[in-house]
TrEMBL record:
PANTHER family the record matches: O-GLCNACASE, PROTEIN O-GLCNACASE-LIKE
Designated name of the protein: OGA GlcNAcase
GO biological process annotation, one example: glycoprotein metabolic process
Organism in which the protein naturally occurs: Sterrhoptilus dennistouni
Residues of the GH84 domain: 1-150
Domain of life: Eukaryota
Biological classification of the source: Eukaryota, Metazoa, Chordata, Craniata, Vertebrata
Molecular-function GO term, any one: beta-N-acetylglucosaminidase activity
Amino acid sequence: VFPSLAQAQASVANEVYQELGQPPVFLFCPTEYCSSLCSPSPSQSCYLQTIGQELLPGIGVIWTGPKVVSQELSAVLLEEVEAVLRRRPVIWDNLYANDYDCRRVFLGPYMGRAPGLMSRLHGLLLNPNCELQANFIPIHTLGTWFQSELGSCAPPDHAGTWSPGALAALQGAQDGSYSPQEALELALRDWVAEINQQALEPGR
């Protein structure tokens, strides 16, 4: 029925999206969802070019970066992906994912993401460790990174439209810079406080 896999996928995704009334959040994960799966590259991939052309503009497209589990995300790569998809990607960040090797748990700070990525993203999803309690540092440091990104890209003349919590986050992000080590120390301090609080609860 369809001349290519990409056209088939885009057609089905578009039909479902429209049938659901074009919801504000509708995500599509392409078969080529990272650079290592593209041939020969994201910008020259016939598959991604078709997806970018055929997929309705309101549909978000998931991208994991250079690899399935990407140690680094750069603005240059995201610009290339945005150009071929004709929309900013939604990053599905597998930095902490351990479902492929449950003998390992990742407890380090959120890092390897270049400053200023927020303006290149339609969204960011964090794929965490399978063990719930092991994700305190990943989620806490992601929050610190997010605050620093807000601080670096928020227009000062629109500061009045931010919520009190967001304003506090903006003021707390020192000149928009992010330090993984400082973020880790903040997360560890809060995690110890959380553990101590839970230890005082009855039945713990």
